[in-house]
Amino acid sequence: MTYRLATQEDCPCLARLNHQLVQDEGHRNRMTVPELEVRMRDWLSGDYRAVIFEAAAEVMAYALFREQSTEVHLRHLFVVRHRRGQGIGRWAVQTLRWHFWPSTKRLTVDVLVTNKNAIAFWRAVGYSDYALTLEIQPDAAAGP
Ligand SMILES: CC(C)(COP(=O)(O)OP(=O)(O)OC[C@H]1O[C@@H](n2cnc3c(N)ncnc32)[C@H](O)[C@@H]1OP(=O)(O)O)[C@@H](O)C(=O)NCCC(=O)NCCS
Fold first, then answer.
1. 3-state secondary structure 40-101
2. What pLDDT does 82 receive?
């Protein structure tokens, strides 16, 4: 397994994987792959960085994160569907911690409460529960 920082040329691939991530985590996001590609390009030209994990030139996983003054916030972690449960996610987080994330900074991730597999994963790799977002959805009938 190898890893490298993503470039703008990777954005079409990252957008396709992002689309699968949205489906797999059960997110409400309804953006299309082209829309996700535009968003990914904006993120990578700003202060986000993405790391791509590959084996035999095939993408196995990607991570997207932003480093701030006291914190590194992980926005996406995605392992391709046919390679899950093989330790790739755990290895990806270790690689990020060793090679990209300062040990002096707080590490954060947001996860949907319905995404039980991911919650189990984050706890298994060392993250602990901190905050819970609560909401009341707007009344759709009252919208514009
Ligand atoms: C969540 C995800 C990144 C985990 O990657 P992975 O490569 O499958 O995970 P690993 O094989 O490295 O698992 C590491 C540990 O996490 C836990 N874990 C992983 N998947 C789990 C599952 N489905 N149920 C329970 N525990 C799980 C286990 O403790 C595992 O350790 P073990 O193998 O020693 O039992 C991957 O399943 C994925 O991409 N899911 C879809 C996208 C997603 O939800 N991303 C996170 C958004 S917040």
1. HHHHHHCCEEEEEEEECCEEEEEEEEEECCCEEEEEEEEECHHHCCCCHHHHHHHHHHHHCC
2. 98
In this prediction, residue 5 carries a pLDDT of 98
Question: Tell me: the pLDDT tens digits for 15-55?
Answer: 999 999 999 999 999 999 999 999 999 999 999 999 999 99
Report the distance separating Cα 38 and Cα 42, nearest Å.
6
- Which residues does a 6 A CB cutoff place in the pocket of ligand 1? 21, 24-25, 77-79, 84-90, 109, 111, 115, 117-118, 120-121, 124
Give pLDDT, residue 73: 98
CA–CA distance, 6 with 10 (Å, rounded to integer): 6
What separation in angstroms does the CA of 28 have from each of 24, 87, 95, 124? 11, 28, 30, 26
The CATH code belonging to domain 2-142 is 3.40.630.30
Record the pTM: 0.96
Asked if 59 and 13 count as a contact pair (C-beta separation under 8 A), the reply is yes
For 29, the token pair is 């996001």
Residue nearest to atom 27 of ligand 1 (CA): 121
Distance CA 65, CA 71 (A): 10
